[in-house]
Structure to design on (378 residues):
C-alpha cells in the first residue's frame, strides 16, 4: 500500500472513531441526566475527518492506478516487488522508464538496467537484487574499499537485498578486444594502474598460502582424481605454488575478467565486486591476463599482439618480467577449474602446464610415462 493510502485510511478510521465515541458519550449523558445533555459537537468534526480521509484515499488510489497502468507494459517481465518499488517514484513524476533484464535471478543475482527518461536528460542505473545472501555484504565492502583508490560506480539506492548503482558508461575490455580498438592498450595500462592502486592501499601481512593458492592445490588434486593430469604434473604444481608464497596480501577484485572493467575516453570504471576479498594481489593479474589472452586468441590476435596487451597491463601495474613467475603459477587456476568441469581435455591442459612450468617441459612427458603412463593418457 502507498504511504498516502495508509495515512488516508488512518484519517477515515480516526473520523469514524470520533463520530462513534461522540454519539455513545452523548447518548449516555442524555440517559443519565437529560437536562444536562450537551450538543454532539464532535460528530461534525469526526465526519469532516472521515470525509477528508476518504477524499485523500480516492485521490491516491486514482494516482496509484495511473502509475500501475504505466508499469503494466513491464508486467510480462514479471518484475519482483523490489524492482517495481525502485521504478515507481520515477513513474509518479511522469518520467518514461525502460527496464532491460540481464539476469532474471534464476541462477545467481538478478540484474536489471533501468533507464529513466526526463525532459532534460536520461539516467541509467544498474539494479542488482542479491539472491545469494553472502554476496551483498561482500559487494558493499568491496565497493567501499576500491572506491577509495579507484573509480567505481556510486551506490545510490539500497533497500533490503536490492542495490542500485550508477551505470558505468563506455565499453568493457572484452568489447575492445573483439573490436580491435585502438584504445585497447591504453585500457590495459589503466586496468593495471587502478588494480595496483587498490592493492597497495589495502596491503596486509601474508600468513602462509592465500585463498587462491589453496584453491589451485584443491583443483590440482581434483584434476588428478579425474585423470586430467598425472602424478608428476600434480607434484610440479604443488611445488611451484609452495615455492612462491606471497610476501603480502591485498583486497582483490576476485573476479577480474575483461567485462568488469569499463573504459571510456581515458577513464576506467571497475564494477562487479561481488567476489572481492583478501588474497594474493597477483591473482587479479592472473585472472585478467588469462581471460584477455583467451579473448584475443578467439579474435585471431597473433602472439606478438597478445604479448603487447600483456606488457601494457604490466606496465600500468609497474611490474617487471622477472617478477612474473608467481603470476604464471596463478594462471593455473583458470585451466584447472575449466578442466574440473569437463571443459578442457587432458591434452589441452598438459599443453598449458608445460607452457607455465617451462623448466619441467623437457622431461615432463618422459617422467609421466615412467611414473604413471595410463593415468597421463586417460
Amino acid at each position: 500500500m502507498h504511504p498516502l493510502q495508509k495515512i488516508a485510511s488512518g484519517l477515515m478510521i480516526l473520523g469514524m472513531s470520533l463520530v462513534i465515541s461522540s454519539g455513545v458519550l452523548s447518548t449516555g449523558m442524555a440517559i443519565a441526566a437529560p437536562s444536562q445533555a450537551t450538543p454532539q459537537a464532535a460528530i461534525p468534526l469526526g465526519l469532516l475527518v472521515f470525509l477528508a480521509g476518504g477524499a485523500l484515499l480516492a485521490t491516491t488510489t486514482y494516482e496509484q492506478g495511473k502509475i500501475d497502468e504505466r508499469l503494466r507494459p513491464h508486467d510480462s517481465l514479471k518484475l519482483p516487488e523490489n524492482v517495481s518499488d525502485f521504478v515507481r517514484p520515477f513513474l509518479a513524476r511522469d518520467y518514461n522508464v525502460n527496464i532491460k533484464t540481464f539476469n532474471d535471478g534464476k541462477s545467481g543475482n538478478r540484474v536489471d538496467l533501468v533507464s529513466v527518461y526526463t525532459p532534460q536528460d536520461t539516467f541509467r542505473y544498474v539494479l542488482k537484487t542479491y539472491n545469494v545472501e553472502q554476496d551483498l555484504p561482500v559487494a558493499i565492502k568491496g565497493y567501499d574499499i576500491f572506491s577509495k583508490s579507484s573509480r567505481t560506480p556510486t551506490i545510490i539506492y539500497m533497500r533490503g537485498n536490492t542495490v542500485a548503482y550508477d551505470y558505468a558508461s563506455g565499453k568493457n575490455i572484452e568489447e575492445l578486444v573483439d573490436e580491435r580498438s585502438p584504445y585497447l592498450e591504453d585500457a590495459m595500462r589503466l586496468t593495471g594502474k587502478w588494480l595496483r592502486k587498490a592493492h597497495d592501499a589495502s596491503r596486509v601481512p601474508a600468513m602462509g598460502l592465500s585463498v587462491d593458492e589453496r584453491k589451485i592445490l584443491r583443483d590440482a588434486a581434483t584434476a588428478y582424481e579425474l585423470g586430467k593430469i598425472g602424478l608428476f604434473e600434480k607434484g610440479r604444481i604443488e611445488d611451484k605454488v609452495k615455492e612462491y608464497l606471497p610476501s603480502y596480501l591485498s583486497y582483490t577484485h576476485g573476479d577480474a575478467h575483461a567485462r568488469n572493467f569499463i573504459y571510456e575516453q581515458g577513464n576506467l570504471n571497475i564494477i562487479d565486486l561481488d567476489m572481492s576479498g583478501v588474497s594474493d594481489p597477483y591473482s587479479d593479474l592472473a585472472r585478467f591476463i588469462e581471460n584477455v589472452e583467451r579473448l584475443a586468441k578467439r579474435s585471431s590476435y597473433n602472439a606478438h599482439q597478445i604479448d603487447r596487451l600483456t606488457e601494457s597491463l604490466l606496465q600500468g601495474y609497474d611490474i617487471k618480467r622477472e617478477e612474473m613467475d608467481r603470476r604464471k603459477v596463478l594462471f593455473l587456476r583458470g585451466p584447472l577449474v575449466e578442466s574440473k568441469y569437463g571443459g578442457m581435455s587432458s591434452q589441452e591442459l598438459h599443453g598449458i602446464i608445460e607452457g607455465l612450468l617451462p623448466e619441467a617441459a623437457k622431461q615432463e612427458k618422459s617422467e609421466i610415462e615412467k611414473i604413471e603412463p595410463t593415468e597421463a593418457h586417460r
